[in-house]
Amino acid sequence: MSTKIIDKLGLITIHNSKVAMVRSHNKTLFYIPGGKREQGETDQQALSREIDEELTLTLHPESIRFYGEFTGLADGKQDGTQVCIRCYQADYDGIPQPAAEIAELAWLDSNDADRCSITAIAVLAQLKADNLIK
């Protein structure tokens, strides 16, 4: 049996030693904002589109830089499906606010792991190890 992998892109946005995390409508756990790539999109194109849709931010394409790749059990999937999220940091125009399927935006740190998806917990741990969040 092959494991299904969900390919996603995410934006790491840090402010006051906390990282922006989002929660979708009808979900309880928070995750890194971003989403799935559409056919033919580069990481940067997909990330820019998803972040505009979810947080109403315009990313500066030249500022997009790779942070890390994280894999974990997909939230709400009972069949062993994994999510692999390639995370980036970027400069942007606008103020992050929830839009589209996003119900809530929260600024979290490593003390909030119990509110996050498995993959988001891995991101929190790396950000803390890199002294980017508390």
TrEMBL record:
<feature type="domain" description="Nudix hydrolase">
    <location>
        <begin position="1"/>
        <end position="129"/>
    </location>
</feature>
<dbReference type="InterPro" id="IPR020084">
    <property type="entry name" value="NUDIX_hydrolase_CS"/>
</dbReference>
<dbReference type="Pfam" id="PF00293">
    <property type="entry name" value="NUDIX"/>
</dbReference>
<dbReference type="InterPro" id="IPR015797">
    <property type="entry name" value="NUDIX_hydrolase-like_dom_sf"/>
</dbReference>
<dbReference type="InterPro" id="IPR000086">
    <property type="entry name" value="NUDIX_hydrolase_dom"/>
</dbReference>
<keyword id="KW-0378">Hydrolase</keyword>
<protein>
    <submittedName>
        <fullName>NUDIX domain-containing protein</fullName>
    </submittedName>
</protein>
